[in-house]
Design brief:
heterodimer; A: mainly alpha; 14 helices; 69% helix; 0% strand; B: mainly alpha; MetI-like fold; 2 domains; 15 helices; 1% strand; flat
């Protein structure tokens, strides 16, 4: 695809020191542990398809006997009875996820490009701070963030969720590490041809790092797709899908089927995106290392 | 003589200043590129951390302006707040499980996956182990598995097998809460580091292995310790940073399953305590002290890991 990905195309050779028995044992162990990982997810999906009488049987069954779409139907019925139409919650989350992810991709890539390919004073310091910031968990910054949001009057707006997500340190970090691998000669050639720095960035550098795009997109997507934003958003019509769905889950036993359906709706989207972009993500993560 | 020296120094200084200004002008475009990110980053990541440290020395209830009280918050945390000490103990427990245990599990599983020869199988296995981490609130299913009636998986089967005659109240009994939560936390602990390990393992220079065989590497374990791990140190470091962050930040899953506050504070972590004081009691100064401590401990752990990683392959 590009000069960068060529680096990763390496042939796997048979390893002389690996016995067949070892390989078999390895696979066996993986399957057993994999079952532990997968069973709860399978159970979620199976539960979401179970009719009410199957959800409450003794002994409980892992797999559904007579699958039904009723639980999914229930979610929509339940939500259409709510004060704010269900489509609004979907719109909110989709809007937040799309703008946040796209903005993050552009802003973080621009900064990553300058940090990786420009020589200017202070760049090591800036990058050092951002690496440290990988450790700022949301809870540590939540309180001051709330105070800042209220000072600048962003409470109860989409921007309160979207804008901080634009500067997620993880995305910048991965993008910068990956961009280091773009050959300098490629950029020099463009500059000699008279391309402006902006042009070089969008037309030369960015197409080289498409797999890093996907990685940034999936991490940002995961965060925003699951963002409840309950700290900043009060108006019901601005609340997000995960928030609305957690309200269904709070319905307890009588909503068991609908809750299962909701869980599946929420988990299926990130998983599908991961499946589609897996090879690109792994390629990006190869350069994720922190060097001392 | 001395005058000459001063003159030379002054000229040198002027030249340097000119060079810096020239450099700055040349860097203008670079600064424009980093500006949008850096401004947002400063406002929503850096300023909050600094503010948090500042507020931790005050009494602040949002209504009145902050009042400086020195180290009082920290003193109260350690000497007057039993729940905090419980929270520290619990956080330590969960952090050890997701931290070191989860980290090595992720590394070992990534390595085992890498030993598979077929790329398709590798991809499927990667998905299988990573899926719980990305599937949002899928941990709700554990509430069903360990529900306190006989329709839950755990109870249903225990009763069917005759191990118990009445359903066990899993999340209402402090004795069961922690073991169950540890299972759940491990289930979700693969994390971003896992992907980094998978990628790192795939990209170890093959010629190193050949050299290793010449030097008498006998089995896959020696290969792992002497060749593979040393050449993926940067990924190990990245994985460690991500693990430290997520293992100290554990709260959401626990609160969703065991309730908040949980029975006997069995699932109360430092972050739970922070959420309690920050968003329920509005004692922002006190909550900031908790946040600051948490942050400091994370940095310390990070340094410790850096130190330990130097020993890999020796």
């Amino acid at each position: 695809m590009s000069a960068v990905s060529a680096v990763f195309r390496k042939k796997k050779r048979a390893k002389p020191n690996h016995s067949a028995a070892g390989n078999f044992l390895n696979m066996l162990l993986l399957v057993v542990m994999g079952a532990f990982m997968v069973v709860p997810l399978v159970l979620s999906i199976s539960n979401s398809l179970k009719p009410l009488e199957e959800l409450f049987v003794f002994p409980p069954r892992l797999l559904v006997r007579n699958p039904t779409g009723k639980n999914y139907h229930d979610v929509f019925v339940l939500m259409s009875e709510s004060w704010v139409p269900f489509s609004r919650y979907i719109f909110n989350t989709v809007f937040i996820t799309l703008t946040g992810t796209l903005g993050h991709l552009i802003i973080a890539s621009m900064c990553a490009y300058a940090l990786a390919k420009h020589k200017f004073p202070g760049r090591n310091l800036i990058f050092g701070i951002i690496v440290t910031a990988l450790m700022f968990s949301g809870q540590v910054t939540a309180i001051p963030n709330y105070l800042i949001m209220s000072k600048i009057g962003w409470l109860d707006h989409y921007v309160a969720i979207v804008v901080p997500a634009l500067a997620k340190p993880l995305g910048l970090f991965l993008m910068k590490q990956f961009m280091e691998q773009i050959p300098d000669t490629l950029l020099e050639a463009a500059r000699i041809d008279g391309a402006s720095e902006v042009h070089t960035f969008f037309r030369i550098a960015m197409p080289q790092v498409k797999s890093a795009w996907l990685t940034l997109i999936i991490f940002s997507f995961q965060d925003l797709w699951n963002a409840q934003g309950a700290n900043y958003i009060y108006s019901e019509e601005l609340k997000t899908l995960p928030y609305a769905l957690s309200q269904i889950a709070a319905g307890g036993i009588s909503r068991a089927g609908a809750t299962a359906a909701v869980t599946v709706i929420m988990m299926i989207v990130p998983i599908v995106i991961f499946v589609v972009s897996q090879s690109n993500i792994i390629e990006t993560m190869a350069s994720s290392g922190i060097k001392e | 003589m001395e005058k000459g020296l001063v003159h030379v120094l002054r000229a040198d200084l002027a030249r340097r200043r000119k060079a810096t200004i020239k450099q700055m002008k040349k860097s203008k475009i670079s600064f424009l590129f980093i500006a949008p990110y850096c401004i947002i980053f400063t406002v929503f990541y850096l300023v909050p951390v600094v503010t948090s440290i500042g507020l931790s020395f005050t009494y602040y209830n949002v209504l009145e302006s902050p009042r400086f009280i020195g180290w009082q918050n920290y003193i109260n945390l350690f000497f007057a707040d039993d729940v905090f000490l419980t929270a520290v103990k619990n956080t330590f427990l969960f952090a050890v499980v997701t931290g070191p245990v989860g980290y090595f599990m992720a590394l070992i599983i990534a390595w085992m996956i890498n030993e598979i020869k077929k790329p398709v199988l590798r991809a499927i296995m990667t998905l299988v182990f990573y899926a719980p981490t990305i599937s949002g609130q899928a941990y709700f299913i554990w509430k069903f598995i360990f529900s306190s009636d006989s329709y839950g998986f755990a109870n249903g089967w225990l009763m069917k097998l005759g191990a118990t005659y009445s359903p066990i109240l899993w999340f209402e009994d402090a004795k069961y809460i922690q073991p169950i939560l540890i299972v759940v936390v491990l289930w979700m602990s693969m994390g971003t580091g896992f992907l980094s390990f998978i990628a790192g393992l795939q990209n170890v220079d093959r010629s190193l292995y050949e050299a290793g065989y010449m030097d008498g590497i006998k089995n896959r374990f020696q290969e792992l310790w002497y060749i593979t791990l040393p050449s993926m140190k940067p990924q190990l470091m990245f994985g460690a940073v991500m693990t430290i962050t997520s293992s100290f930040a554990i709260h959401d899953q626990l609160a969703a399953l065991a309730g908040f506050p949980s029975v006997g504070y069995a699932a109360h972590t430092v972050v739970s305590h922070l959420v309690d004081y920050g968003t329920i009691r509005f004692e922002m100064g006190y909550a900031s002290a908790i946040a600051t401590l948490l942050f400091m401990v994370m940095i310390l752990c990070n340094k410790l890991v850096q130190f330990l990683l130097r020993k890999v392959g020796q």
